[in-house]
Amino acid sequence: MRAVIASEPGGPEVLTVTDLPDPEAGDGEVVIDVTATAVNRADTMQRQGKYPPPPGASEVLGLECSGTISAVGRGVEGWSVGDEACALLAGGGYAERVAVPTAQLMPVPKGVDLVTAGALPEVACTVWSNVFMVAGLQEDETLLVHGGAGGIGTLAIQLAKALGARVLTTAGSQEKLDLCRSLGADEAISYRDQDFVEEVKQATDGHGADVILDNMGAKYLDRNLSALATQGRLVIIGMQGGVKGELNIGKLLAKRGAVIATSLRARPVDEKAAICAGVVEHVWPLVTDGSVRTLVHATLPLAEAAEAHRIMESGDHVGKIILTA
Ligand SMILES: NC(=O)c1ccc[n+]([C@@H]2O[C@H](COP(=O)([O-])OP(=O)(O)OC[C@H]3O[C@@H](n4cnc5c(N)ncnc54)[C@H](OP(=O)(O)O)[C@@H]3O)[C@@H](O)[C@H]2O)c1
Q1: How far is it, in rounded angstroms, from Cα 103 to Cα 243?
Q2: What is the value of pTM for the model shown?
Q3: CB 67 within 8 A of CB 37
Q4: Number of structural domains in the chain
Q5: pLDDT tens-digit map of 106-145
Q6: Is 47 exposed, middle or buried (0-12, 13-18, 19+ CB in 10 A)?
Q7: CA angle, 213 as apex, 210 and 215 as ends, to 5°?
Q8: Calpha distance 106→85 (Å, rounded)
Q9: In testing the pocket of ligand 1, which one of 123, 134, 152 has its CB within 8 Å of the most ligand atoms?
Q10: Which tens digit of pLDDT belongs to each residue from 219-233?
Q11: What 8-state DSSP symbol labels residue 11?
Q12: Domain that holds residue 89
């Protein structure tokens, strides 16, 4: 099969299409003939040599895919050759075929085409697991989503709104701020021209954000604490602003707050299974009824993975960048 690997750590140019042996379905696994995968920030970090795959995972890039099941391993129940599915992967999505435990398979939501479905698993699982399973966002609470126009942000805004929360978000340009509002954000704050701490306080009459979904890490740690409500939960999922920050424990303690950081990729299969099941139960119905949709910025063939990475790293995109196998 054709697959994309990083031949050495470096820029997008190190992404190489190569021939690899077809994967086989192990016990409890299926092989998917990939229709589409999508680019994630983690792929760009893996390409740079900063985010190696977890032990046992494929060297081939790609954390999600959609496609058609072409082989079924021993002990698999409920899935058959010819079924369409999408999947959360520990790696291996930038390829014509990938083996995946059935626990990480999800049906394609009704009304979504198979190509677009390749861009859903990673964002849906990340947002559902962090904002709802970990941080427990409630209907009457306020969520602050940093980077509302990105792949994660666009889905987080829509999902939190659909489930009844108030949503504040940050973005870097007027066009992206407008997009966030059109997706349902109650307030869209320019991270370039405005002080998000002040804006959050004003928008919540001084209460603060009950949950913050953060992509920036160190750079925003202290300001996120300032923007957090009493008993607020700050969930850090990205390190775009660095990995080492100073935590003011006094500020956190006074707010009886929580700072949590998670990574989806390295979690054991049973945790991923619970997340995928939650997504199918709670998120897919909202995708099917149109309350939550995937925003696709560009769709490129797998052979143009390098260009797809350039687009993501330019920061000009909104929503997801899809690669078709
Ligand atoms: N831990 C996990 O399990 C997990 C899983 C998936 C993703 N992630 C992380 O989630 C983050 C978002 O992923 P993605 O796929 O949505 O990437 P993406 O589409 O490239 O989005 C990146 C976002 O970062 C925003 N941004 C850049 N500088 C910012 C700043 N100073 N303040 C606030 N926002 C800023 C961008 O906003 P503008 O476009 O408006 O400039 C953009 O919305 C990444 O850091 C990724 O690594 C983590």
Answers
A1: 31
A2: 0.97
A3: no
A4: 2
A5: 999 999 999 999 999 999 999 999 999 999 999 999 999 9
A6: buried
A7: 150
A8: 6
A9: 152
A10: 999 999 999 999 999
A11: S
A12: 2-120+295-324
